[in-house]
Specification:
By secondary structure, the chain is an alpha+beta fold. The protein has helices at residues 5-21, 23-31, 78-82, 125-129, 156-159, 163-169, 171-192, 205-210; strands spanning 60-64, 88-91, 103-104, 107-108, 112-116, 135-137, 153-154, 160-162. The chain has 2 domains: 10-41, no CATH class; 60-187, 2-Layer Sandwich (Alpha-Beta Plaits). Strands 6-1-8 form a 3-stranded mixed β-sheet. The longest helix has 22 residues, at 171-192.
């Protein structure tokens, strides 16, 4: 492998995009046998909004299934511990009157879950370390506001979004997650199912004759 090959490949993509942006450049690309695409075009925002790739990400959000109280998050706090800028803050899990962990839909849940987006660097580490697929990356970028505090501190209510939303913005990734969760649920159901009783072995013939 040639040293610096990746740099030259990246520069070639940039150069190709530059030629594709202009009519004369597209003519030149066709002349050398390269099929041009649209290149760089100006988007008349906000009347026209750019379509982003599925991997485009901004800030995390919490996924719930049937209803907002059916959170996938169990308040294990792994994402809070692994977050490099420490922008995730979790209070929980919730407790009942006797001080025991409270559950909703068979799972513990956080009392509060908040993210300080002013220091979040959208690294996605929280998504990768979550063992329950409870947190995903959003692609909503129109988050401007006329104040500087409350809009940057996203609480649990603001972070909650249904799985249908996740399926809409990132269909390929959501399908992979749904398949993984379905496999886990099937495995858990099989383990919890009652096992059939072992068949009784008849006594040996000699023992039956002696009796």
């Amino acid at each position: 492998m040639i040293v610096g090959q990746g740099i030259f490949q990246g520069m070639a993509v940039t150069l190709k995009t530059f030629f594709q942006t202009y009519a004369w450049g597209r003519v030149l690309l066709r002349a050398v046998g390269v099929k041009p695409s649209e290149g760089l075009v100006t988007i008349e925002y906000p009347d026209v909004k750019q379509k982003h790739h599925e991997r485009f990400r901004v800030f995390p959000f919490l996924v719930y299934d049937a209803s907002p109280d059916d959170l996938r998050c169990v308040s294990c706090k792994i994402c809070e511990q692994e977050c490099p800028p420490q922008c995730i803050h979790i209070t929980g899990p919730a407790k009942d009157e006797q001080g025991r962990p409270a559950k909703a839909h068979g799972r513990t849940y956080p009392v509060e879950f908040s993210i300080d987006t002013s220091i979040c660097m959208s690294c996605r580490i929280c998504v990768d370390v979550c063992p329950f697929d409870a947190i995903e990356m959003d692609n909503a970028y129109e988050l401007s506001s006329d104040e500087r505090k409350d809009s940057m501190w996203m609480t649990k209510d603001a972070l909650l979004k249904p799985n249908e939303y996740f399926q809409k913005i990132k269909p390929a990734e959501a399908a992979e997650v749904d398949a993984r969760l379905a496999a886990k649920a099937a495995k858990a159901a099989a383990a919890a199912a009652p096992k059939p009783a072992a068949p009784q072995t008849p006594p040996p013939a000699s023992a039956a004759g002696a009796a």
